[in-house]
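Regression test case RT-17, inverse folding.

Input:
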């Protein structure tokens, strides 16, 4: 169970996240929605402890995450994997090595620095790539892949951390509709293994399609928390400041028609 209690983050006079409280049972797939600047990324970064809260607490299975430092903090970031909008791959390295980076916190410092990965770890990385239909790219440089492929490499890297939670911060924001669907199918397949997934999304239709639960922020405040079917037109207006019809028209104009589902190995 991930528990967030009164979480607040201020940057000077600006409050990015304002007293947010949530309880997220293990195995849920939660979509975090809201306009740009609503506090979505700041919330996820605090959960991963890439940023510290000004006030409030984060607990996971009874452990106070906000007090961790040193090795305990590194262990938390291993169990709580982060996926970023811009992939965060080492572009000059091959795909296999980028995936193996997910094992570094589980290895002695010297072997980590020298990237002396075991045969078992290499087999794990290849299996992760194969799962996301990327095995044939293992020896290619990361910068030769498309955006959608790079994001799936980032998911494979996260899986090598053997995480309990995956935090995905706008993972499809820079992708076309087809690749967006492939990445979301990949995240849902991971979630079906029992891994909790929190994913920041701009697109309301995507959140409704893939997520068990939707959390909405507006100006850092929690304004909705519930199943997708309870996100009514009135709630949408509160979150986005527009009607559902207006929001749908804006989204359609921005990304075009949504493609048909694409199969990903479970």
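Golden output:
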């Amino acid at each position: 169970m991930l528990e967030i209690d009164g979480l607040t983050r201020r940057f000077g006079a600006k409050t990015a996240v304002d007293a947010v409280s949530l309880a997220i049972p293990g195995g849920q797939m939660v979509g975090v929605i809201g306009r740009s600047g609503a506090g979505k990324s700041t919330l996820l970064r605090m959960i991963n402890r890439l940023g510290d809260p000004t006030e409030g607490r984060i607990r996971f299975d009874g452990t106070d995450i906000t007090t961790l430092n040193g090795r305990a903090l590194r262990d938390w970031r291993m169990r709580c994997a982060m996926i970023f909008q811009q992939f965060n791959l080492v572009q000059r390295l091959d795909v296999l090595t980028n995936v193996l980076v997910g094992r570094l916190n589980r290895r002695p410092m010297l072997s980590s620095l020298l990237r002396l990965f075991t045969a078992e770890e290499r087999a794990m990385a290849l299996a992760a790539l194969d799962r996301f239909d990327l095995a044939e790219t293992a020896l290619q440089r990361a910068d030769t892949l498309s955006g959608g492929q790079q994001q799936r490499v980032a998911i494979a890297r996260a899986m090598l951390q053997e995480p309990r939670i995956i935090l995905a911060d706008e993972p499809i924001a820079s992708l076309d509709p087809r690749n967006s669907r492939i990445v979301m199918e990949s995240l849902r397949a991971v979630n079906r293994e029992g891994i909790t997934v929190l994913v920041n999304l701009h697109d309301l239709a995507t959140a409704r399609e893939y997520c068990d639960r939707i959390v909405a922020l507006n100006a850092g405040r929690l304004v909705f928390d519930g199943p997708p079917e309870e996100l009514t037109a009135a709630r949408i207006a509160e979150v986005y400041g527009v009607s559902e019809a207006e929001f749908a028209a804006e989204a359609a104009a921005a990304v075009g028609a949504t493609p048909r589902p694409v199969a990903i190995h479970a």
